[in-house]
Amino acid sequence: VTLERRRTLATLASLVLVWEVVGRLGLVADGALPSLSAIAASLVQSWAVYPPHLAATLSAAGTGFVLGNAVAIVLALAFALVPVLQRVTSTLLVTLFCLPIVVVAPILGIAYHSDWPKIILAALAVFFPTMISTLVGLRTVPPGAVEVVRASGGGRLRAVALVRLRHALPDLLAGLQVAAPAAMLGALLGEFLGGRRGLGVYLLGSMGRAEPATLWAIGLVAAGISAAAYGLLGLVRRSLGAHDVQPIADPTDSGAGAAARPAARVLLALTGVVVLLGAWYAFVGSTGLPTTVMNTPLDVWHNLVSGENAARTRESLLPALGGSLLAAVVGSLAGIAVAWLLAVALTLVPAAARVTMPFAFLSQTMPIIALVPLIALLFGRGTLTVVVVTISVTFFPALVTIQQGLAKAPQGQLDVLRSVDASRWTTLRLVTIPNATPYLLASVRLAAPRALVGVLLAEQFVTGTGLGGLLGASRGYLDYRMMWVITAVVAVVAVLTYAAAEGAERVVQRRRA
Fold first, then answer.
1. pTM here?
2. What are the residue boundaries of the ABC transmembrane type-1 domain, all occurrences included (predicted)?
């Protein structure tokens, strides 16, 4: 055991001891943070209840994991072979990427029965991490390797089979590693729609009882499963010699849209809108349900803008939207700011990672749907909980993205400063931080959809306010019209926020170039 590993283990042991003491003394929110021994005792006492719930959740998460990743890999291969396909479908992909699954869940609960809503939510949650990573691996092959295949008479398909797929395998495994906790999130959220078994059902039923140890036990079991899958895939990836840095690409970056002529960009945009609307109509038609239940784009427009009850709909919607957006902005900016400060601090003092990264890893592996009631125990059922939940879902992705930017400072500039014995802070201020600015903007772009997920979950299951509360009430009253309006409005807001952040990112990159 190396000295570094011993220090890490000692740090973790100290944190466990502090948690135990704080929990036993009830120092946090009058016992809302129980001791680890109390959590373990609750788990042992209730263990007979867990197997059927675990089996249901693992079945839905596993099926969604397989289906979502299969579709992601097939689409990544198709985009690598025929890049125009990605440009044509980019509007649909951006919308799906930005649309929080918490607003999709009630729609799927109406459209499908049995375990399919849970499976589809798990598949949606895992789709983008895998597709993004696979695409990056397929497109970052050394040009010489592809040229060898072409020189021997091989085409695109042969180059993909012989070169690109092998090169993309470590990146594919990185995507699968990130997707594993996401599958648990999708399955748990689907179980919140209803059902007899599943960790989500058990968690929802336990929220009304004053049993913090039970809630923590369920949350830590879900986190343990996610962490085990994350770690297992990480071991496989490292056994192949893959590095630990994950790409920060996204499913909309075809690399050609920005360079195309204005007329071509307009044509691609119009085609993308047609594909999006066509997919919407196809989904509604596939359910076989009437449009009074499964609204089309025209139905949503009528209910929100032109219909006789549109004004009443807007009166209910706009105040809720304003409250949710304010919480999302405050929470996401706070999460990104904390991530930025921590990333800079870890660059200056790398040893601090032994204390901070275990908590960051826990926030990554514990599904947010399991974390929401725990945060509510600690911070109450007010706006503060909504903001804290939003911080928790935006913090870790922002931290990873910003750390990548800080690690990619130009070596030549670093060598110049080292030659004059510049301090770490001077190097950070003059070179490292300026070069990480595009990554900071990328973290804003990627945080927008996650911030909305956090806000809507906290509002729906804790505070009952904002768009999340309105969505929950609409589901309870079977107000399909309002459910579809909320889904469409959230999608538009998320896509516009994403586009604004992406535009700012491109402006900064052009100025730096």
1. 0.82
2. 54-233, 321-501
